[in-house]
DNA sequence: ATAAGTAGCGAAAACGTTTTCGTGTTGAAA
DNA sequence: TTTCAACACGAAAACGTTTTCGCTACTTAT
């Protein structure tokens, strides 16, 4: 087992100083052709690689990006990571991942762990619990310490930082408008409680679309699911709620769901009730994940382009990190949503 | 913007030495109660946290685990990461993720980037291209440099390291046996080319089950899909291949697919051909992902317990890292698979 | 022959810690 | 009064780099 070799060891072996070795390896003109050759040959032979940690300490930058997301077993978030990783790698950065599991304290702890020198900046999406408690001190503190943050998807306006979002309202509006144009008269929305910002905005888009077409919204058509239901155990009660939605609205002919799971579950209930899609009821979801693509019928959905979100977030962060001038000017990038039409709509 | 404070700054402010500050913060008895109080109060006020990079350099360990996986937008792999992260975090480790995208060179580059001091050890699953080329020098080299590796799922015997696998053959055997016991007489397998080890072992399990029940395997019932097809673009040709499989075997009444996507696609084709599940044909997949759970009919599948695999891998690695004695004794842990029965079988 | 310039190299500082080893001061014992 | 221990603290090394500065010896020009 030959341990990693250091400059010091090379220096000792070749009977030169550490500085000489360092310079020789970096092709400094200070060093004679002779010694340069000798050192480089030796280094190559022993497969020398500079120690990243030492470099990080010296340069006071780690070339590493910290990601904090609520969960990773989730198509959208893993797409985003994939996008971040792609551009990070291309620009010589590594990516270190922390999971908050939607918990405020885990989010705080994870950020503190990483903020102490391990990374140069954060890309994150806020945990639900944090959104609920509206306690954002950990974000402001890290920013105050000079560590940049880029937020994506779940963001809050209070915090001054770069953001990458989709226009949730616009995306929802597109979807609901599509349903209306397809002839739906009684369109329901299955959404989350309002403190989840994306749920709020998508609901807003739903209402805007209705208004555009002079349709009066009906309270009974708006189902705000307690988001605990997303944890798969509570799927049953979600189903029940949706079933009640159908029973209360016999003429229901269109559903807009703010996420894949709600949409898929709605399809399941509809099928159970003997309804055909898209003939009897048309359904559109949000987030183009693997479920939408393989559902029966395949699900029309609003794609958020998670990969692109990740790429953009990484670009913003790295640009910020590598910017010379220290002006604090923050940007909010909106990634266009796209309505992907499949078989669940006419 | 108040930058992170260092020992040196505290020392200067309080007019003591750096060593005194360090000792005071670590409650050394060398330091008088008085100074200790003073230092700790000051440190707390300025929210002092030791710099991780400096600690890493000093201790020559980073408390960080490197993960290299072929892709992250994949239910199984993200489950594994989630498991790794859980125990890593509990034991004070961070997790840094590299993606190989199934490419040999990206795998090598990523490992080299991380091996130079950034991490203490690797947890990885081998890229397909690497398996194909059978070039494992980067693994042996990192191990030789004293950096431990734990492989999971896609492993190779040549490399001496800890491994966490599922008994693919056994899992497949369970599934196929189930189909036989459920009355299937003509059972097909949809699998990958042999160089993907999991594909090979699952095929082997299929054959073993048949043999157990004295059923002769038929070549026409074994569909080895070129794994390029997994990249979602090639879904169409996958469908065609499966359709041909049905046409060539009119009495086909059971299908075992070595992954979710193959299973779902088989269901799609069956439905197109007017076959009912589970009445006309029963289907079992491998990997219990989100697709299986929400397919129609819901898909019976072999669960690999990705989370548990990740947890176990992390335990093995950290135990190895924190072991005092340097004995090189490696373990291969087999995580039991479980047949999750749903509606696609009788 | 002397001054000046240059080529080639090494010493040392710096990044932020922890830890070992001194060292000076105090108080008590001899 | 001398000696010794205990106490409280500081200096310095170490982790592995990069970089600035200084030094020596040689070459060239005057």
From TrEMBL, chains A, B:
Organism per entry: Olleya aquimaris
Descriptive protein name: LacI family transcriptional regulator
CDD domains linked: HTH_LacI, PBP1_LacI_sugar_binding-like
PANTHER family noted in UniProt: HTH-TYPE TRANSCRIPTIONAL REGULATOR GALS (PTHR30146:SF109), LACI-RELATED TRANSCRIPTIONAL REPRESSOR (PTHR30146)
Pfam families in the cross-refs: LacI, Peripla_BP_3
Domain of life: Bacteria
InterPro entries membership: Cro/C1-type_HTH, HTH_LacI, LacI/GalR-like_sensor, Lambda_DNA-bd_dom_sf, Peripla_BP_I
Occurrences of domain HTH cro/C1-type (ranges): 2-53
Keyword terms, alphabetized: DNA-binding, Transcription, Transcription regulation
């Amino acid at each position: 087992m030959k341990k990693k070799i250091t400059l010091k060891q090379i220096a000792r072996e070749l009977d030169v100083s550490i500085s000489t070795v360092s310079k020789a390896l970096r092709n400094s003109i200070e060093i004679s052709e002779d010694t340069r050759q000798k050192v480089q040959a030796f280094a190559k032979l022993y497969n020398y690689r500079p120690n990243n940690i030492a470099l990080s300490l010296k340069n006071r930058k780690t070339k590493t990006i910290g990601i904090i997301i609520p969960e990773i077993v989730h198509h959208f978030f893993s797409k985003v990571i994939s996008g971040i990783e792609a551009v990070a790698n291309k620009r010589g950065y590594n990516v270190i991942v922390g999971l908050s599991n939607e918990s405020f304290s885990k989010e705080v702890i994870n950020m503190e762990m990483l903020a102490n020198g391990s990374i140069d900046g954060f890309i994150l999406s806020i945990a639900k619990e944090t959104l609920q408690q509206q306690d954002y001190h950990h974000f402001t503190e890290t920013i105050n310490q000079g560590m940049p943050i880029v937020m994506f998807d779940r963001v809050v306006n209070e915090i001054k930082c770069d953001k990458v979002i989709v226009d949730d309202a616009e995306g929802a509006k597109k979807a609901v408008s599509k349903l209306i144009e397809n002839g739906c008269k009684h369109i329901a929305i299955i959404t989350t409680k309002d403190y989840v910002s994306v749920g709020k905005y998508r609901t807003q888009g739903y209402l805007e679309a209705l208004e555009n077409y002079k349709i009066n919204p009906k309270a009974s058509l708006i189902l705000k699911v307690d988001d605990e239901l997303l944890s798969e155990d509570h799927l049953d009660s979600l189903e029940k709620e949706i079933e009640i939605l159908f029973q209360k609205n016999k003429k229901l002919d269109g559903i807009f769901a703010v996420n894949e799971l709600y949409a898929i579950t709605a399809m399941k209930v509809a099928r159970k009730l003997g309804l055909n899609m898209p003939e009897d009821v048309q359904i559109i979801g949000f987030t183009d994940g693997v479920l939408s693509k393989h559902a029966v019928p395949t699900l029309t959905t609003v794609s958020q382009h998670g990969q692109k979100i990740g790429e953009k977030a990484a670009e913003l962060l790295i640009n910020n990190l590598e910017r010379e001038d220290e002006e604090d000017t923050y940007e909010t990038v909106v990634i266009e949503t796209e309505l992907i039409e499949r078989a669940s709509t006419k």
